[in-house]
Amino acid sequence: MPLQTAMANPFNFPQQELLRDGHLLSTALERMTESGQVILGRGVAGFEAAFAAWLSPELAAEQVVGVANGTDALELALRGSGVAPGDKVLLPSHTAYATVAALLRLEAVPVFLDLDADGAVLSVRDLGEQLTAVAGVKAVIAVHLYGEACDLPAIAALCERHGVSLIEDCAQACGTTWAGQPVGLWGRFAAFSFYPTKNLAAFGDGGALVVNRKGDVETSRRRRFYGWDEGRQAVQFGVNSRLDELQAWVLLGKLAQLDPRIAQRRQVARWYRERLGNRAWLPGDGDHWRHSYHLYVISLPAEIRQRLLQEAAGPELPLAVHYPLACHQHAYVRQRFGAGRPLPHTEARLQEILSLPLHPYLSEQQIEQVCQRLDPFLPQAL
To answer: Distance from CA of residue 378 to its chain's centroid?
Structure first.
């Protein structure tokens, strides 16, 4: 039975994407059938070239490597950085668990960083202190969480000074810019996810590894496909992580609409800011960067957030917490690596964050309905 517009949940982003872009699936299937290519064919090559051009005119098509998902992209970035079992990797604890899962697959050791006091990204001060204090660090993962940008110049300078690789986790930051350029161009590698809820969303899994040093390109491209050379001889370590041809054609079609849809995400964020004012801590742009609003995460006193989750959340107001646990608090991580040192800003923030509905198809009227539901619970001013 075809999906009917009247049946759609306006807050369900993947469902809204299917309503608007479902035709891309049939187009993708037609192109696959015409080409006879189902693995690493014209669709993947075309998407890699188009995404490279979208990121920067100076980026060559082969510097984007389409892979199966964003977690694989991070793992391949770590492998490309020479991370081996027992090596330490610095990363924020407040991130999607996939960031940690990628390095655990290499049997690397996570060293968790605290947050900046004023946002969702890692503290540059804490990074500098840990790079000095911890021996055996091979890489730093800078996570642009929710669509906020890390302080890229400061982090890149610290990594260069200490001789460690910088990897940008851009899974939630497709469209975030620093000084007018998309994030993903500062690290040795960058990892993007095209999971169905992301700003550039496939109708399944997908990801991309961005290789910013041309000397890493050949080995990175082989690493996603068994380590094979052009003669299908394994000449290095490799995995099986290929962007699906069907998803590549879908992403290629969606890429043409990415900029206007990110602009609409920013418009939805403006409606929230105009309506909620100073009644909660609201996300926004930084001095040198622009938010892409993959998620719209506000902060409230813990008791107010708890009341909202218990009394206001429901199908008509899908509130969420991204994420209720920091990575160092997960049972498996504690079992493997111990409790670790205190991360006061991270642990305090976990009690306050709340995600409100945001995607590019929401109207001002729908945002008003959300805010009316929030009104009885919010203070007059913080």
So the answer is: 29
325 and 283 share a domain? yes
| φ/ψ of residue 270, rounded to 5 | -65, -40
Q: What is the DSSP string of 29-96?
A: HHHHHHHT--BS-HHHHHHHHHHHHHH-TTS-GGGEEEES-HHHHHHHHHHHTT--TT-EEEEESSS-
Q: Is residue 336 part of a domain?
A: yes
Question: What's the whole-model pTM score?
Answer: 0.97
What tokens appear for 340 in the block?
């670790």
Query: What CATH code is carried by the domain that includes residue 337?
Result: 3.90.1150.10
Q: What is the pLDDT of residues 314-361, one digit of tens each?
A: 888 999 999 999 999 999 999 999 999 999 999 999 999 999 999 999
**Cβ-based neighbour number of residue 321 at 10 Å:** 15
Residue 86's domain comprises 13-255
Instruction: Using the predicted structure, report yes or no on whether residue 187 has a pLDDT greater than 60.
Output: yes
Tell me how far the alpha carbon of residue 352 is from its chain's centroid: 21
